[in-house]
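hiii so um. not sure if this is the right channel but i have a protein structure encoded as tokens and i wanna go backwards to a sequence. like what aa goes where. can anyone help
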């Protein structure tokens, strides 16, 4: 998504890729909705399984929190025509989300 927008990191050519920003935003949102559905299913499964620790459940709920925060930043970013500060925050949130997702997956392993 970022490579299609005005903040792709190249001052001479702001949009590195020639993809339509609106279409890319929709595809990005669709993949996020899939992630949210899978996350909801995982939270339900963790709730139904009695042997799952509270720590594991908390990590997955933290992932949900970061996901919701990322969604809010993304929608505000899109509504405000992609200001650079919100792009930076969204990328920082993506890094945090990758870290928490790794932690969450490792928490269900023995």
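sure thing!! here u go:
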């Amino acid at each position: 998504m970022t490579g299609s927008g005005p903040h792709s990191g190249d001052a001479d050519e702001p949009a590195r890729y020639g993809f339509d920003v609106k279409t890319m935003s929709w595809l990005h949102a669709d993949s996020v909705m899939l992630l949210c559905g899978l996350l909801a299913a995982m939270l339900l499964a963790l709730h139904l399984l009695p042997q799952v620790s509270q720590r594991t459940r908390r990590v997955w709920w933290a992932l949900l929190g970061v996901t919701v925060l990322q969604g809010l930043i993304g929608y505000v970013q899109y509504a405000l025509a992609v200001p650079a500060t919100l792009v930076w925050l969204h990328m920082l949130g993506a890094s945090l989300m990758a870290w928490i997702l790794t932690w969450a997956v490792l928490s269900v392993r023995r």
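oh and Residues 74 and 90 are 7 Å apart (CA to CA).
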